[in-house]
């Protein structure tokens, strides 16, 4: 069957003033243009592009996902691009089943664990390779956007960052309007954007969900710890050297996953949310414990992950104090701070069933 093309207006959701809508759209556009600029730099000015992408954007992302996931969901350049087929009325608008949604989430977890160690092998030092990676992910997102409704296939499924969003974004500071979905079409349930205090354990209706959620939660702290114990490789000369970049991350994730399974058996079921929050806080804290010193020249491996070298300017205890403060903040925010029952985004009005039946076609 073909895809029915409909005229879809890019209209905002909720009771926003024109000024507010203009501000949001401007931020979306500026962020998207920044993404294009980084992609251009990665291709033609790799030293600048690598610095901007890996040492500015990526280090800022985890804290944004912890505090304000909805903001990122609104302005993510990749999301803006992959949702263009739906905004332009070119999507087949298929609904993702619970089982397929679980498969998508499991694939996202595997992709994340496979691709991230390759940063040490190629992406951290090769701008063109990083650009090709971004283009490949974008192409995949756009392709599924031509078939499936709204964020169901990519932003809430196959995107490798989505498992991190669900793990880190369980207690955000506020809900913001959904600037992509003008109506709720029940494209995925539960909707991660509109479910308060969502975490990887929320969706348990399919076998892949029941496996991928605990697996990712338990593995991530050790995976991050192991990742920071592997130096960047300027060149990979053999399969053995390629396998070595996975050794420490996979060893770390095996240890913390085993610990998670043990604690899951011991901890009362009603405290499972706290167990998830503990592992989430451990993961993001571990990231900044190692990443902050790296950014300022105090890392384990000389210039790996360097943003600006302050080693001869700032005393090491000052950077260590900064890292300790970050750890204390994340454990407070994610584990001890009272849950405020906030979703990432404000759920838009539900689309009428008659409207859904009229607009959707079987692909």
Walkthrough of the structure:
The protein is mainly alpha-helical and 363 residues long. It has one domain (18-359). Helices cover 61% and strands 1% of the residues. It contains 14 helices and 2 strands; from the N terminus they run αααααααααβααααβα. It has helices at residues 18-44, 46-75, 77-82, 84-87, 98-115, 118-123, 127-145, 154-158, 162-168, 207-227, 239-266, 272-295, 316-336, 353-359; strands at 176-177, 345-346. A two-stranded parallel ribbon has the order 1-2. Helix 10 (207-227) packs across helix 11, helix 10 packs parallel to helix 12 (272-295) and helix 12 (272-295) runs antiparallel to helix 13. The longest helix is centred in the N-terminal third of the chain and has 30 residues, at 46-75. The chain is globular. The model is unreliable at 1-13 (pLDDT under 50).
Short description:
The chain has 363 residues and is mainly alpha-helical.
β-strand number: 2
Multimeric state: single chain
Report on the biggest sheet: 2 strands, parallel
Shape: globular
What share of the residues lie within helices?
55-70%
Averaged pLDDT, please? 89
Number of domains: 1
Unreliable segments of 5+ consecutive residues: 1-13
Distance between the termini: 5 Å
**What percent of residues are in strands?**
under 5%
- Rg from Cα: 21 Å
What is the H/E string?
Answer: HHHHHHHHHEHHHHEH
Order of strands side by side in the largest beta sheet? 1-2
Number of helices: 14
